[in-house]
């Protein structure tokens, strides 16, 4: 796929970049080990960041099940629900969390070597799925044994602790990192030097006319519509339709996201393996993983609508559907950096 922001001239060598190795020599790759490397430390810290982010995002779905059953009897014997006043802070929180994925893409545009892009980004974003897996059942347990308010207090404290670590450890670029090795810095910088453009003016006209860009937009919209609908309403579906209690609700609602988390990790490794070892072009890998990650979930999600109240099949189909969605993490989800890495600088 041709980059959007590469400057005015595109030669034959750039045209064929999808089918040729992005690293000039094996020696460079060997000079940058994975163990204790700054780029993988960044991936792990980003993983926990998205873990916290989605823990804070989905715990409301479980807490809400407990919140709506609570009421307060006032002195004049009137019963009052106490959920509505929290709506404004919740909306502000969700609006602010929406910037995290673009921000992380901007970080990886300076840190991710092209042939490690799938692995590094899927490790980072898999934290969102594991955060969902842990938060859903844990929130149910907290609501059952304590109080729904502690769901927000405990996860909020973890978020503050992560923020302190992020500010202390992370740097914007390899050049400004305090503890990165010389070999790793040279490996990252040299592998990205042909990917990034020095052009400072954003070519908005070319961007708006780019079919690859609009393909990514449509894919993102379609995938996120399904993902966040399930993320928000799955606990309610488990309670109101399948009649699970709050503990069972949290555990069973987490199953689909555990499968998706595992699938994301494996697909990130597989995508880069296909590109490095089997010489698959980048565009072929992105198309294959996007196809499986979009069509597979759709088939099982539609099938789930025809099984009535068979809770075993319902949970199985929803789990398979969400698990297959993990393929998309190595497809369109990171394709932005393939077509326009300079746009994130």
From TrEMBL:
What is the membrane topology noted in the UniProt record heading this document? Multi-pass membrane protein
Q: Which GO terms describe its biological process?
A: monoatomic anion transport
Keyword set includes Acetylation: no
Q: Where is this region: Disordered?
A: 1-24
Instruction: Name the predominant localization.
Output: membrane
Where is the protein found, in the record's own terms? Membrane
Q: Name one GO cellular component term.
A: apical plasma membrane
Listed transmembrane segments: 38-56, 120-142, 148-169, 213-234, 254-276, 288-307, 313-334
Do you know which InterPro entries this protein is assigned to? MFS, MFS_Na/Anion_cotransporter, MFS_trans_sf
Record keyword Transport present: yes
Any one Gene Ontology MF annotation carried by this entry is: symporter activity
What's in the keyword line of the UniProt record? Membrane, Symport, Transmembrane, Transmembrane helix, Transport
* Protein name stated in the entry: Sialin
User: What organism is the protein native to?
Assistant: Cricetulus griseus (Chinese hamster)
């Amino acid at each position: 796929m041709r980059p959007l922001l590469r400057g005015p001239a595109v030669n034959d060598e750039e045209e064929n970049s999808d089918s040729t190795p992005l690293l000039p020599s094996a020696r460079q790759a060997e000079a940058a080990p994975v163990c204790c490397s700054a780029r993988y430390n960044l991936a792990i810290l980003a993983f926990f960041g998205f873990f916290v982010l989605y823990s804070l995002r989905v715990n409301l779905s479980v807490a809400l099940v407990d919140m709506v059953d609570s009421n307060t009897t006032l002195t004049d014997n009137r019963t009052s629900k106490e959920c509505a006043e929290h709506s404004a802070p919740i909306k502000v929180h969700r609006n602010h969390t929406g910037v995290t994925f673009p921000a992380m893409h901007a970080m990886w545009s300076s840190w991710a070597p092209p042939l490690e892009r799938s692995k590094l980004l899927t490790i980072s974003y898999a934290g969102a799925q594991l955060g969902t897996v842990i938060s859903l059942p844990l929130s149910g347990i907290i609501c059952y044994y304590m109080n729904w308010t502690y769901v927000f207090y405990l996860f909020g404290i973890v978020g503050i602790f992560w923020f302190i670590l992020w500010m202390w450890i992370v740097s914007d670029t390899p050049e400004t990192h305090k503890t990165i090795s010389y070999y790793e810095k040279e490996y990252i910088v040299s592998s990205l030097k042909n990917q990034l453009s020095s052009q400072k003016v954003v070519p908005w006209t070319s961007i708006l006319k780019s079919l690859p860009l609009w393909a990514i937009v449509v894919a993102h919209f379609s995938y996120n519509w399904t993902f966040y609908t399930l993320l928000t309403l799955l606990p309610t579906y488990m309670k109101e339709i399948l009649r699970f209690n709050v503990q069972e609700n949290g555990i069973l609602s987490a199953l689909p996201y555990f499968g998706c988390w595992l699938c994301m990790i494996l697909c990130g490794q597989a995508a880069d393996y296909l590109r490095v070892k089997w010489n698959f072009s980048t565009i072929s890998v992105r198309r294959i993983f996007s196809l499986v990650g979009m069509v597979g979930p759709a088939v099982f999600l539609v099938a789930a609508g025809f099984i009535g109240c068979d809770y075993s099949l319902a949970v199985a189909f929803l789990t398979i559907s969400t698990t297959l969605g993990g393929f998309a993490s190595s497809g369109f989800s990171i394709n932005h950096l393939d077509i326009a890495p300079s746009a994130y600088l």
